[in-house]
Input
Amino acid sequence: MNADTHLARIAGAIAEPARARMLCCLLDGHARTSTELSVVAEVSPSTASAHLARLKDEQLVQLLAQGKHRYYQLAGADVAAALEALLVVAGLPRPQFKPSTPDRLRHARTCYDHMAGSVAVRLHDHMAAQGWLAEHEDDGREYELTPAGEQGFDRLGVDTKALRKLRRRFACPCLDWSERKPHIGGALGAALLQLALKRGWVEQDLDSRALAVPPTGQRRMLAAFGLSEV
Output
């Protein structure tokens, strides 16, 4: 397919109003279900599925499987940049993501054996921004640590060599239920939660998945990663 022909196909996929609303909704970086996107697009769930299939075929969105749930997000930064440019031409603001998860669970909780919630997502994003994480060369759904990441976790007292010997995935992006952005799962995510519990950064709730984050614990945790409270 010629580039101009491919451009026309992509433009056609974006041009349908319902699909355009879906894409603009996903611009905030949060993943959403087909049902949620059907509400945004003001179409039936079956129609939304057909629209999402078209967007996926044109590599504008990608499908994420998280247990029994299926989420959609933009296929990459290039797609986001193209949509941003079109929004500048259109002159319209993008919608904001409004989570409905209770605040106590949204802030910090366990996700199986690792930490989830806004705190965990912030740590993930910071590690990515600092160049600690790299996609596994054989599997983009897994992470490897860069030399900077190895040094960072070594300073925190995490034995990454021992973690790699475990019979499980070393590290992977795990889509956060409330934030709809990834936090760190796998053996590395589990080690991070145990470190937070050991140092008193967070406290396990005996009756739920919620993690209490005392103000002093949060300050120490953020400081350990070079982050401020704001």
User: Anything to note?
Assistant: Residues 75 and 134 are 17 Å apart (CA to CA). The chain has eleven helices and ten strands.
